[in-house]
Design brief:
mainly alpha; about 60% helix
Length: about 80
């Protein structure tokens, strides 16, 4: 990840991943026990950090970053 770019927080990445795989803001809020406003705030923050304006562009940006630098943006789930 470029040094000039703020690092996304683990929570921002978690919410981005859920959004990318198709969860709505309402579903994300329910599953994470947070408000819909908080979900939208996290998405807005990661969009700003990654310099994108929508979920499609964020998805492309994260996958490109992963391929170029090995940045692992997917949430590691404990089983």
């Amino acid at each position: 990840m470029p040094q000039w770019m703020d690092q996304p927080t683990p929570r921002e990445l978690e919410i981005a991943e859920m959004s990318i795989i198709g969860y709505s803001c309402e579903e994300i809020a329910f599953h994470l026990s947070i408000s819909i406003t908080t979900v939208r705030t996290h998405l807005r923050n990661i969009y700003a950090k990654m310099q994108v304006s929508n979920i499609r562009a964020l998805t492309i940006c994260l996958y490109k970053l992963e391929r170029r630098s090995g940045f692992d943006w997917k949430v590691q789930r404990h089983q």
